[in-house]
Every structure is written in C-alpha cells, then in structure tokens.
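Need residues for this backbone.
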C-alpha cells in the first residue's frame, strides 16, 4: 500500500528546513546553502537527494561525523591545480566553495583541476555542473562515496563500493545546458529509501537481496539485512564506477573503499573536478555551430511508442522543476515523520516545523 503524500509549497518547505537546520547550530549562510541545495534536488525530481536526507545528516552530526560551519581548507595550490579538504563539513557548503575556487581559476587560466577530499555528502552532483555552466565553463566530476558499500561489482553478489556519481556540464550558448548527472549504480541508493517509505516496489534488475539474489523489495537497500545495487550497463557501469573510485576517492579524496560497513551514518565524498573554458579551444564559432547542429539532429529522431519526444540530459530535471515550482513538492508521510523525529533529536520543535510547512500536527 502506498504511503500518504504531502504536497508542500516550495517556500513553506524551505521555511521548515531552515527551522530544522537551526538544530545543527549552522550559521545563516550554511542554512541557506543546505536548504536551497536539498530543495533544488526535490524540484528536479531527485527526491533521493532532497530533504529526505536530513534525518541521515542529523544522525551523522550527532555521531560527530558531520561538522557544522566547516569550510574548505586549501592543501595545495599551483594555480591551475587545487587540492582541498572539506573538513567533514556540509557538502552543500564545501561543494559550493570548492566550485567557486575552481571556477575563478578556470576563468583566469582557461582550465583548473580541483581535487576535493573529506567532504560530507555532496548531494546532487549535477548542482556543481550547473554552477560551472552558468559561468560558461565545461566541467567533469568523478566522485566516490565512503559509507556502507552498497554497490556490487559486475559479477559479484555483495556491496564493495558506493554509488560513485559521475557528472558533466556543457554550456550551450542561447539554449539550456546539457547536464549529465548519474550514479554508476543502476539507481541511487536514496531511491530505495524513497520507494521503501512510499510502500512501492522497485523495478526488476535494480537490487539484490542479502544473499545476492534479485529482488524488487526496496527494504534491502534500507534496513538490515542490506543487499546490494548492481551497476548500470553491466560491466560498462562497473568500469566507470572503478574510475570514479580511483580518481574521486584514492586520488582526490585520499580515501577509497576497501572494507566492510562500520555502522557510521556519515557519508563522505571525494571529488575530482576538471573545469575548462571551451571558448579557448579552437574556433568557438565552429564549436557552437557543430554542437547545436548535433543536438538538433539527435532530438529530431522520431519518438518510440509511449514517448512524446527525444530529450537530452538535463531536460527532465528542468521540466520537473517547472512543474513542482507551480504545484509544490511531494513528500511522503513516512519521510516527513522521519524529518520530525530528526528535528526532535536536534532540539527543534516538530510542531513548529509542521506549522511552517502548512501541515497539521
């Protein structure tokens, strides 16, 4: 049976999140960045990375694995190479500060490589690609995840690494950018939480149970005994996951996955980001013309049955954002109750959070 759904207007949800965030002891700017990042994830349709992450953040903070009001620390600066440490701070703050530094260098020098270590959950990696394209830059992001190993290698039965996201942002002058943002697992782990809280089943092929057998029950991604997610595209996704672990984890983060779960709630990310200005490579007019011609050619493909048209990466998120801005953000009752419980743990009044969201106590 599906769970009850609340539909909360964006500004009401933002106010409720601000109130909950006070329980972390966060400064106003940190509250603003975290709330906006999480709500933007919900707006794009990625509820796995939205406000439903706050209970996990609260647990991590209370355990000491997530530090409020932390900022990036520069470990190495050679001009176009930056090595940064996130000091286990909110990824919404650390990611923003890291990208600001990298963007400034790429605009000054034409390119920059940023190696970011020890950030708490960077959330939707596409947000960092969007920051780059807003400044006319192309970016590529390789990310690893230090938490419970939840993704099985191709041919394996149990979790050996994280969902290891990969993202690319490409600005298209005069049009919306191309934003490719994906987990290298067949689905993000948070989507098992969303399905579990809604009382829904997963599609076949998205999850293995604790014995390594296929299952559609999302509980194996949420509660003990935990199973594992397969990689997308079989061995191809597995290969990309390995690259993300080696570059985002071992290289940029100085920490790769090589052990079983330790029971901690913190989610640490390492991220290797490559930023560069496409206008400085070759003939910018030719590049722009060829890019637009290719995109026009691709989306002109006749749609298959059940599909109205071809969409490129980033379009579904923009469509979801427009729809949810107008209609509100859906939050299932189970997730909302988890948020209220987290607020209580952080010393905030859940009845006030309900009131701010426009929900009955």
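Answer:
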């Amino acid at each position: 049976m599906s769970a009850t759904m609340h539909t909360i207007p964006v500004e009401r949800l933002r106010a409720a999140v601000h109130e909950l965030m006070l329980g972390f002891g966060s400064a106003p700017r940190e509250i603003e960045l975290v709330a906006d990042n999480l709500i933007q994830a919900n707006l794009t349709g990625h509820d796995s990375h939205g406000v439903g992450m706050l209970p996990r953040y609260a647990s991590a903070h209370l355990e000491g694995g997530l530090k409020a009001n932390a900022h990036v620390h520069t470990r190495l600066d050679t001009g176009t190479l930056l090595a940064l440490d996130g000091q286990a701070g909110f990824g919404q703050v650390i990611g923003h500060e890291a990208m600001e530094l990298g963007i400034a260098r790429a605009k000054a020098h034409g390119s920059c490589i940023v190696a970011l270590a020890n950030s708490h959950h960077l959330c939707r990696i596409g947000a960092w690609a969007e920051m780059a394209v807003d400044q006319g830059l192309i970016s590529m992001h390789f990310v690893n995840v230090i938490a419970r190993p939840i993704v099985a290698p191709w041919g394996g039965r149990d979790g050996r690494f994280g969902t290891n996201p990969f993202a690319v942002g490409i600005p298209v002058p005069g049009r919306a950018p191309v934003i490719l943002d994906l987990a290298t697992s067949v689905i993000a782990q948070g989507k098992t939480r969303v399905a579990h809280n809604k009382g829904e089943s997963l599609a076949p092929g998205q999850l293995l149970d604790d014995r390594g057998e296929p299952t559609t029950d999302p509980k194996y991604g949420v509660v003990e005994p935990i199973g594992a997610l397969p990689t997308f595209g079989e061995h191809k996704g597995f290969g990309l996951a390995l690259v993300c672990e080696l570059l985002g984890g071992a290289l940029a983060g100085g920490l790769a996955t090589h052990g079983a779960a330790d029971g901690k709630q913190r989610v640490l990310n390492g991220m290797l980001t490559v930023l560069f200005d496409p206008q400085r490579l070759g003939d910018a007019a030719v590049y722009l013309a060829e890019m637009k011609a290719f995109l026009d050619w691709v989306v002109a493909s006749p749609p298959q049955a059940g599909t109205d048209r071809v969409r490129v990466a980033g379009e579904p998120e923009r469509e979801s954002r427009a729809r949810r801005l107008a209609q509100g953000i859906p939050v299932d009752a189970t997730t909302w109750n988890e948020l209220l419980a987290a607020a209580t743990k952080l010393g905030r009044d859940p009845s006030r959070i309900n009131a701010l969201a426009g929900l009955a106590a």
